[in-house]
Design brief:
The complex is a heterodimer of chains A (383) and B (264).
Chain A lengths: L16 E4 L1 H13 L3 E8 L2 E6 L10 E6 L2 E6 L16 H4 L5 E8 L2 E6 L7 E6 L1 H14 L7 H7 L3 E5 L10 H4 L11 E8 L2 E8 L2 H6 L6 E2 L2 H16 L10 H7 L5 H8 L5 H5 L9 E4 L5 E5 L12 E2 L2 E2 L4 H20 L9 H4 L7 H11 L2
Parallel strand pairs in A: 2-8, 8-9, 9-10
Antiparallel strand pairs in A: 1-11, 1-12, 2-3, 4-5, 6-7, 6-14, 10-11, 13-14, 15-16
Helix pairs in contact in A: 8-11, 9-11
Chain B lengths: L12 E6 L5 H7 L5 H7 L1 E5 L11 E7 L5 H12 L1 E7 H6 L11 H8 L23 E3 L6 H13 L10 H8 L4 H5 L15 H4 L16 H10 L4 H7 L8 H9 L3
Classes of the chains: A alpha+beta (383), B alpha/beta (264).
Chain lengths: 383, 264
Amino acid sequence: MTTVNGDMTEQLHDKRTVVIEPAGLDRLIEVLSRQGYEVVGPTLRDGAIIYDRLASTADLPVGWTDEQGPGTYRLRRRGDNALFGYAVGPHSWKKFLFPPALTLWRARQAGESFEMEAETAAEPRYVFFGVRPCELQAMEIQDRVFMKGAHIDPSYRSRRENIFVVAVNCGHAGGTCFCVSMQTGPRATFGHDLALTEVVGNGSHYFVVETGSGAGAEILDDIPHREARDEEIAAADRLLCDTAGRMSRELETNGIRDLLYRNYENPRWDDVAGRCLTCANCTFVCPTCFCHTVEDVTDLDGRHAERRRPWDFCFTADFSYLHGGSVRSSAKSRYRQWMTHKLAAWIDQFGTSGCVGCGRCITWCPVGIDITEEARAIRESER
Amino acid sequence: MMALVAEPKRKPKLAVWKFASCDGCQLSLLDCEDELLAVAGAVEIAYFMEASRSVVKGPYDLSLVEGSITTPHDAERIREVRRVSRHLVTIGACATAGGIQALRNFKDVNDFIAMVYAVPQYIDTLVQSTPVSANVPVDYELQGCPINKKQLLEVIGAFLFGRRPVVPPHSVCIECKTRGTVCVMVAHGTPCLGPVTHAGCNALCPAYHRGCYGCYGPKETPNTASLSRWFGGLGMGEDDIARAFRTFNAWTEPFRKESTAHER
């Protein structure tokens, strides 16, 4: 397994680059399942590619791709049998590591006092099968939030420490992708046990596989593979180069923190507020948004209470509710908070941008608000 | 340490009142099959004509009011209900927004009366169907057509223990995304009122590939104008946009303004 510290993932192991045939991936799923892992990855549902359980590679969106743009997502046939020929969809891996709803504890009345009962459900051991490079960076960012500060989240940590990561380098640039700007892709450089590059076409179909950890190298013993030839490695490299060249969007990050800090009163915030629905879809699909709240509920006889931890969103009035009212009552203040935190304050808080360039917030905004466009407008207003 | 709940001296008295409505929201209370005994254990069901003819005299600690105010008699009676109720909670779109019957508010009610009734002189109705809050002060409004029974239990429970009910006023989108439902607007191009609609139904319709119909009324700070512009881009005509906002919650201010802006 990858260790969770980004700087430690390049563990001392004999790094290998091998070739696996598509059937070898089924063997990989089989071997990992037998080791007690639950394999989750991309699969088709309701007209999109989401993350759920995989029994075999047949559950992957074989031969499918996506067309994405601001506020729009459509599945299309590719005309080949690629297993990973698409970009990211509405789900992200955070739903497994940081579930959208979690019960923290229960309390039961016992005479004049009460008894506390911590949630002790066993956390599943996941294989994340098909993690994109931008998503590795997103996980690294959430690690900083949940595991590297003064307060460690035990639920997150126990899930995170047990995952096996099969990363997939991107041979397809989605219509809202901008990982190159954020320096997070299209090639995985850390945080994985194995990283695959799928090469398909001209009658051949194979995966160039790089090991990223001792566990990744070890599992190759059980998977049919052979050493990669130079031309196969070159073909994979070319593919990733092409993907980087086909980025549909760009976000200029140079000096972005100070740019946004200087522009709290920029009229562009009024403009975006005219479009923003404050529906919070962007925060839900964002793989790094980590806000959560706690809710207490009781049953009718008052003998049983629960504390729950659902995700929270800076786009609601309740999010900033202090005594007497909401601090951010307008859409303008909420959108500004979200974007300024994501692209600027995050750097002060966690030493990294909160954006990985996955483009989900652009695609899944019901009215197609584009964070790269908003940032550009603010930058250009200073020219 | 203090017990979770102080033993009450007597059970609070609950009353359920009906005005112009379909009874669906009251039925949500009866629909609490598994929880009904717990409700009866926690409160004295003192007035609930849908469930029992036996009536315990007021005043009542908690009154749940279903239905909108549509007749002079209603207007009189809701003031009496308020007078005998320590806490008054409206349940459903009729009581909180005027209901589907508030469609009359956009037209001349006398035209409807003349059209529908053979002997119109027996009809004694108000010009408008109004929410309870337009007539008397209301302590809490539970939105929805019909309301969600779990939210009703939550409101009753919160009332019993003097805490804020956990009934988030945010968008239906949050429920869709929590369930993992794929967005029907982004992925299918289906117009959906979810981004401006109050959560509470657990995003039922999108889970069955339908756009949200807005049954739970406006969420907090709804940007209906932006959503309408997007609907236009999806190919919806002005009439259809106006009609989308003219259903069970048509008379709420945000939906009323939006539908009127697209009316021709």
